[in-house]
Amino acid sequence: MKKYEVMFIVKSTNEGDTIKNTAEFMKQTVSENGGKVVEFNELGEKKLAYSIKKEISGYYYVMTIEANNETIKELDRKAFINENILRHLIIKLDEE
Predict the structure, then answer these.
(1) How many CA atoms lie within 13 A of 3 on its CB side?
(2) Which of 14, 17, 30, 96 has the greatest CB tally within 10 Å of its CB?
(3) Residue 76's pLDDT band (boundaries 50, 70, 90)?
(4) Distance between CA atoms of 26 and 24, rounded to whole angstroms?
C-alpha cells in the first residue's frame, strides 16, 4: 500500500456534531475500503483565503493514510459528493 496525505475543509456553519461526524465519515471511508489511517490531525477553524460556496471560514483536517488506488478513488468520490466538505486534496507521499 502507498502512503497519502489527505486534507479536507468542513463547513464552519455546521453544528459541532455535524463537523465531527464529517471527519469520522472520512476516516470510516478509508477503513471500510481496506485502507489504514496512520495519523489524524484537526487543525481547527481558519479563515479561508477566498469564499467557497459563500463560506468564509472552515474546519481544516489533515490525515496520513495507507491505501491502494481503489480506496483513494472511493475516498475522492465520497468527499466530492459530501455537501459538508468544501474542498479536499489527496497527495501521494514519496517512497522513502
Answers:
(1) 8
(2) 30
(3) very high
(4) 5
Q: In the chain, where are the structural domains located? A: 2-90
- For residue 96, the model assigns a pLDDT of 61
Please report, to the nearest 10 degrees, the dihedral formed by the alpha carbons of residues 17, 81, 47, 53 taken in order: -120
CATH class of 2-90: alpha beta
pLDDT at 37: 94
Burial 39-64 (b: 16+ CB within 10 A, else e): ebeeeeeeeeeeeeeebebbbbbebb
**Beta pairing partners, 65:** 4, 37
What single-letter DSSP state applies at residue 68?
-
The predicted model gives 50-71 an average pLDDT of: 93
Of 24, 32, 35, nearest to 72 (Cα)?
35
Which residues, in sequence order, are bridge partners of residue 52? 55
The stretch 49-54 carries a mean pLDDT of 91
